[in-house]
Amino acid sequence: MNKLQTLLEASEIILADGAMGTMLFEAGLQFGDLPEVWNIAHPDLVRAVQRGYLQAGAQMLLTNTFGGNRFRLAMHNLDRRVAELNRTGAVTLRAEVEAAGNRALVAGDIGPSGEILAPLGTLEYGDAVAGFAEQAQALISGGVDVIWIETMSALEEMRAAMEGVRQVSPDTPIIATMTIDTRGRTMMGVTPEQAVKAMSEWGAAAVGGNCGNGPDEILGVIQKMHAAAPDLVLVAKSNAGLPELVHGKAVYTTGPQAMAGYSAAVKAAGARIIGACCGSTPAHLQAMAEVLGVNHR
Amino acid sequence: MTDQEPAIAELETPELIEKIQDDLYDGLADEVVGGVNELLRRGLTPYDTLTRALVGGMDIVGVDFRDGILFVPEVLMSAKAMKAGMVILRPLLAETGAPQIGTMVIGTVKGDIHDIGKNLVAMMMEGAGFRVENLGINNDVDKFLNAIREHNPEIVGMSALLTTTMPYMGVVIKALKEHGLRDKLIVLVGGAPLNAAFAEEIEADAYCRDAAVAVETAKKLIAIKRGQAVPAPQ
Q1: What is the least distance, in Å, from the CA of A68 to any CA of chain B?
Q2: Which of B134, B206, B223, B220 is nearest to B169 (CA)?
Q3: What's residue A189's pLDDT?
Q4: How close A262 comes to chain B (CA, Å)?
Q5: Domain B103-225: which topology?
Q6: Residue A188 with chain B: CB contacts under 8 Å
Q7: How confident is the model at residue B4 (pLDDT cuts 50, 70, 90)?
């Protein structure tokens, strides 16, 4: 049994972590800076965010590698640093988890390429697979327990990412979540039912939704996924609402109590891995841990 | 000779226009090209071919995208078919001195490397007959200023997907004012974290929720600017 299966056997609910990107911007990340570079430049600040989530009770944390594929790094002329940035991201999080008593899983975070696959777009499927395989290889060599592919909107790209992971590792568990934020579908028109069916057929250990327009939207997604596939391990990782502009600064207005309510609601709807996305903080996670009864000490 | 040609030749012109619109909707580039050539052969002007067949067809695509009937993949296919038709029409439009629908300079702002949504707006604007200068990602004030001086657009579009990069749109608008360019331009902004209140705060002319809304808004504001009747919403 792998570590994810063991944890799922032991607990009804797994609390995943909260946002990384918006926390790093709070910590001083600037216009145009790449969050993944902070794995090397400011590992202390990355670890401080992760420590906050561990202390709040998170049982699964994501590496700071969301944009760490060669396609996105190439936009900053950093595509030669895929291995270094991802491996360091994994090693950094592993160190923080060990320092906190080694009670949480380390998930290697893979986000979208930022491109559209051919023939609609220009990214060839084989190139996409190779790019994701490269990132997965680095994360796995850095010691992650699972790979978490998130924020996808196209099924073909999700498939390419999963295939890339499988090219370098036959058995690292894969968690796969899509962003279902456009009138009940992904930007590319994928329904929750289509997403859940495809991702489980391709071998994901857990499937679900992340990011998007906030808790109400994800609750609907989980309900639909649960109805379509009642036996699957479902994942919800909602934004803390949508940002509002306050004095020229984007502020997420959904507070910890509202996010606690969201976690209870998605749990009731059938989600077993529950976390938060953009705009959330350790305070949100703390409130979620309390309402979910996650006992971490 | 393809199998299509006899069928096309038998259609009355209004039916042929409708067929081209259907083919655009279905993203059938070869069929659109065949239809455009046939309309031109019948003596329709390049401008009428553009506006009645292609722009008319993309209007329907835009409305269905806005209403959640079509999603990005279908729109991309339609935009590709539109582009194939424009390859034929563009030189002819220039030759015949056809009226310009308008020009847009569009880019994702500094610090932001997201371009799918912005490219979709660019394609839909081209679909509506606009000439579009797409500056790509990560554009600072100077890139916008230079492009505006070079292409003399009526419309500037700015995109951002990050809450941290969206305020830079305000920086660009401020620079447009300082250079005396702001009043001549229609400034449209868009991107997932934006809303109308943000557009108002940075003094853009409008926030556009998606590519279809961007096209509608652009047409409306250009008509107002030129003192024409505002096109009826669909």
Answers
A1: 13
A2: B206
A3: 96
A4: 21
A5: Rossmann fold (3.40.50)
A6: 71-73
A7: low
Q: Are the folds of B4-95 and B103-225 the same? A: no
- Banded model confidence at residue B219, pLDDT cuts 50, 70, 90: very high
Cα distance between residue B132 and residue A26, in whole Å: 36
One-letter amino acid for residue A200 of the chain: S
pLDDT at A197: 98
- Split at pLDDT 50, 70, 90, the class of A31 is low
Distance separating alpha carbons of residues B225 and B184, to the nearest angstrom: 9
Contact in structure between A234 and A259 (CB atoms under 8 Å) = no
Average pLDDT over residues B91-120: 90
Q: Where do the domains of chain A lie, and which CATH numbers do they carry?
A: 3-292 (3.20.20.330)
Give the count of beta carbons closer than 10 Å to the beta carbon of residue A210.
27
Q: What share of chain A in percent tops pLDDT 90?
A: 87
Nearest CB to A120: which of B77, B168, B193? B77
| Of residues A181, A183, A188, nearest to B73 (C-beta) | A188
B165 and A31 within 8 Å at the Cβ level: the answer is: yes
Q: Which of residues 108-167 of B touch A (CB under 8 A)?
A: 110-116, 137-138, 163-167
| Interchain pair A182, B68: CB under 8 A | yes
CATH number of B4-95: 1.10.1240.10
Contact A32 B110 (CB under 8 A): yes
Question: What does the alpha-carbon distance between residue A112 and residue B49 come to, in Å, rounded to a whole number?
Answer: 39
- Distance between B174 CA and the closest CA of chain A, angstroms: 14
Q: Residue A217 carries which side chain, given as an amino acid letter? A: E
Read off the amino acid at residue B105.
Answer: V
Q: Each residue of A236-256: pLDDT tens digit?
A: 999 998 887 777 677 888 999
Tell me the chain A residues in contact with residue B68 when contact means C-beta distances shorter than 8 Å: 182-185
Alpha helices in chain B (DSSP H): 4-10, 13-25, 29-41, 46-48, 56-66, 72-95, 116-127, 141-151, 168-178, 196-201, 211-225
Beta carbons of B77 and A114 less than 8 Å apart: no
Contact of B56 with chain A, judged by CB distance below 8 Å, is answered with: no
Distances (CA, A) of B118 to A185, B72, B124, B193: 20, 12, 10, 14
What is the per-residue pLDDT across B150-184, written as a single tens digit (0 to 9) for each?
999 999 999 998 777 888 999 999 999 999 999 99
Per-domain residue ranges of chain B: 4-95, 103-225
DSSP state letters, A190-246 = --HHHHHHHHHHTT-SEEEEEESS-HHHHHHHHHHHHHH-TTSPEEEEE-SS-EEEE
Given a cut of 80, whether residue A295 has pLDDT beyond it is no
Nearest neighbour of B71 by CB, restricted to A30, A189, A248: A189
